[in-house]
Amino acid sequence: MNDDELAIRQLVETWMAATKAGDLPTVLDLMSEDVIFMTPGAEPFGKAAFAAASESMRNARIDGRSDIREIQILGDWAYLRNHIEMSATLDGGKVMRRSGYTLTILRKEPDGRWRLARDANLLTDQK
């Protein structure tokens, strides 16, 4: 495993840990400024909308597990195919569970760090 693949795996681990800890600034720092997220049934959205949605979930306890299935590095670009299982315990105790695949495009930025540039999140509700 080369340094770039290790860095990408660390990005995913950091994202999961920061999400669980409710550390939104760390999660936002893992994204490029022009990041675009795509989710089923919604218009693509960027970093500001991601931050606003995350703020609305501030009181939820979020936990998750990531299983990276593939990483391909192509110069300063890479893609990542990942399976994620997550749960969010909302105020009042209601638990929301989602799982599924993501296809993520990452870019190595001028500071040498890999950041998420595009993400197709295909997680669906689980009962």
Automatic annotation (TrEMBL):
Every DUF4440 domain range: 8-116
Highest taxon above the source species: Bacteria
The protein's name in its UniProt record: DUF4440 domain-containing protein
